[in-house]
Amino acid sequence: MTTQTHQSTPVILTGLRANNDLHIGNYLGALMPLVEMATVKSSEYQINIFVPDLHSFTTPIDHSKLQAQVTNNLRLYVAAGLPLNNSNLHIYRQSYIPAHSELTWILDCFTGFGEMNRMTQFKDKSSKLGDDRISVGLFNYPVLMAADILLYGATYVPVGDDQTQHLEFARDIAARMNNQFGELFIVPKPVKEQHAFFGKEQGLRIRDLVEPAKKMSKSDETGKGVIFMNDSPEAARKKIMSATTDSLGVVAFDLQNQPGVSNLLSLLALFANRPLDEVIAEYQGQTQYGPLKTAVADAVVAFLTTFQEALANVDNAQILAKLADSEAAMRDQADVTLLRVQRAVGLRG
Ligand code: TYM
Questions:
Q1: Is residue 125 annotated as a catalytic residue, yes or no?
Q2: The whole model's pTM is what?
Q3: Known catalytic membership, residue 215
Q4: What span, in angstroms and rounded, lies between the C-alpha atoms of 4 and 8?
Q5: Which domains does the chain have, with CATH numbers?
Q6: Which helix (H) or strand (E) holds 156?
Q7: Active-site residue 238, yes or no?
Q8: Do the bridges between strand 154-156 and strand 11-15 make them parallel or antiparallel, or are there none, so unpaired?
Q9: Using one digit for the tens of pLDDT, what is the confidence trace for 97-142?
Q10: Ligand 1 centroid vs 157 CA: distance in angstroms?
């Protein structure tokens, strides 16, 4: 049995892939909850945000653009309001901390093939790729994600609804390893408790504006239904004004039958910072969709304008200095966990 040497401050952690520009779904689902924690609760928690660059090529990408995308995304994190001068906040790149890859291999050997095969995101993504383009990396991507979380003993992991199953897997593998080897890992809180912690009833799923049956996604080829954080406010307005609704002709919050309209109501609540119930009460029963679209467009335009002003002022030198500090500190923390695991599985004496 190994002794537990976890740090005492609870950790909130998230990562956002840098394959493409981030969109408002990424912002609302993962970045905003983390920024809120980093500004409101940073004295009580250690806050980790990282670029999962090793996750970037689980699906094919243009590798020559990855470096620029990583910088671009780090700038977006800062523009979203992360306080770089806060010593409880850590910003880092996954591939700069080798323990992520090493722990992944160990966890791989305790993960069932069937377990990975059941992951909905794997099924979705692999169905879009030809057999020879489905990589083993795409298959065991949730294991790397579990390593990302468990190395730092994260308790809370703000993610959108599409990542919930991966988070459940991180809990499962942590509990399984703890059962076999003693207390190796802090098990992240159950998903329901996570939602409660971030003040939500469920995980967020912002929908594509053109095809509201599916989620807004970075990998959407046309980008017509996606609002990127770098879109000009006017381009964003156009996308919202031409968002797909339905032919029922009455505003109601009904995700099943009116996903487009429901998505617009959610976006208005989130960007205007108002309770969803209040927004629904204001628009419910209206027979025109135009006023709702205009209100959403106004709120998104105001948000993007302020955000992009902040983005223009982000200083890359400050980011690089923060990365150097955080990566050194996190390498040490991750190595402590890795060594504990290596000892437990017999790799170290
Ligand atoms: P990624 O890069 O696909 O997405 C980043 C975050 O944005 C959320 N998200 C959404 N939320 C609401 N509505 C949407 N339409 C929407 N689209 C995306 C995602 O749920 C995610 O929280 N595997 C992760 C990255 C990762 C990670 C981790 C996250 C790697 N290691 C460890 C947390 C902890 C991913 O691909 O997210």
A1: yes
A2: 0.95
A3: yes
A4: 11
A5: 11-201+315-344 (3.40.50.620)
A6: strand 154-156
A7: no
A8: parallel
A9: 999 999 999 999 999 999 999 999 999 888 888 777 899 999 999 9
A10: 10
**Choice among 49-63, 123-137, 224-238 with the minimum mean pLDDT:** 123-137
- The residue whose CA is least distant from atom 37 of ligand 1 is 16
Phi-psi category of 14—alpha, beta or left, where left has phi over 0 and alpha has psi -120 to 50?
Answer: beta
What confidence tier does 2 reach under pLDDT thresholds 50, 70, 90? very low
Pocket test for ligand 1, best of 73, 104, 121, 159 (most atoms within 8 A of CB): 159
Side chain identity at residue 189, one-letter code: K
Cα gap 14→48, rounded to integer Å: 6
CA of 339 to the centre of ligand 1 (A): 28
Residue nearest to atom 20 of ligand 1 (CA): 160
The sheet carrying 11-15 orders its strands as 89-93, 46-51, 11-15, 154-156
C-alpha 348 – ligand 1 centre gap (Å): 34
User: What percent of the chain has a predicted confidence (pLDDT) above 90?
Assistant: 89
Query: Residues lining ligand 1, CB < 6 A?
Result: 13-17, 25-26, 28-30, 52, 55, 145, 148-149, 157, 159-160, 162-163, 204-206, 215-216
Query: At 63, is the secondary structure helix, strand, or coil?
Result: helix
State the alpha helices, DSSP H only, in the chain: 24-26, 32-40, 66-79, 99-108, 113-117, 120-128, 136-139, 141-150, 164-181, 191-197, 233-241, 259-271, 276-283, 290-312, 316-344
Q: pLDDT tens digits, residue range 257-295?
A: 999 999 999 999 999 999 999 999 999 999 999 999 999
User: Which ligand 1 atom is at minimum distance from the Cα of 145?
Assistant: 31
Catalytic residue, candidates 41, 125, 214, 224: 125
Whats the size of the chain, residue-wise?
349
For residue 6, the CA-to-ligand 1 centroid distance in Å is: 26
**Cα separation of the two ends of the chain:** 12
pLDDT band of residue 175 (cuts 50, 70, 90) is very high
In this predicted structure, the answer to whether residue 214 has a pLDDT above a threshold of 70 is yes
